[in-house]
Amino acid sequence: MLQTLHRSKTPSGAAYIDQGQGRETLVLIHGVGMRIEAWGPQIARFSKDHRVIAVDLPGHGFSAPLDALPEMPHFVAWFARLIDELGLEAVNVAGHSMGALIAAGFAATEPSKLRRVALLNGVYKRTPMARQAVEARADQILSGAFDREAPLERWFSADEKDGEAYHLVHELLQQVDSSGYAAAYRAFATGDAVYLDSWPTVTAPAMFLTGDGDKNSTAEMAEEMAKAAPRGQAVVIKGHRHMVNLTAPQEVSKALADWLTWQTAQ
Question: What is the pTM of this model?
Answer without folding.
Answer: 0.97
